[in-house]
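Section 5.1 Outputs to date
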Amino acid sequence: MLIPTIIMGVLALILLFIGYRQGEGKHILGIKAATGMIIRIMPLLVSSFIVGQMIHILIPQAVISKWMGAESGLKGILLATTVGFLAPGGPYTILPILAGFLQAGISIGVIMAFYSAKFLCGFTRLPIEIGIMGWKFATVRLTTTLFLPPIIGLLANAIFSRFT
């Protein structure tokens, strides 16, 4: 986490400097916009981090292993695909929860199946997608992506097992 933080910090400083050099208080406008976003998102982030960490504290290791651990195999991947397909929320809520899952010992294949199902096939996007793009687009998206999360989960397990 240190290196990405340093990179983003340096990038932020560079962009602030560019905004300052351009004048018209652009650097101040950027800071004000960022502060507003922080105020809106911080409660969601804090709640998500708590949920993510409580998951690995509260769920017994035996349950994790059976349903979502490395030995769960295809059953865990299919379960994660289904839950990911139905899960509400965006990256701010999902990623801290998945980090908690990873710490709890849930297999990388299960996590990748959940993640890809959520962001490739997510059910929660359907109403807005149908409203804007129409039924045909939504049907094509679902039929072309629905089979991918289990494959991604199996591939992640196969690739990750070679590195552990």
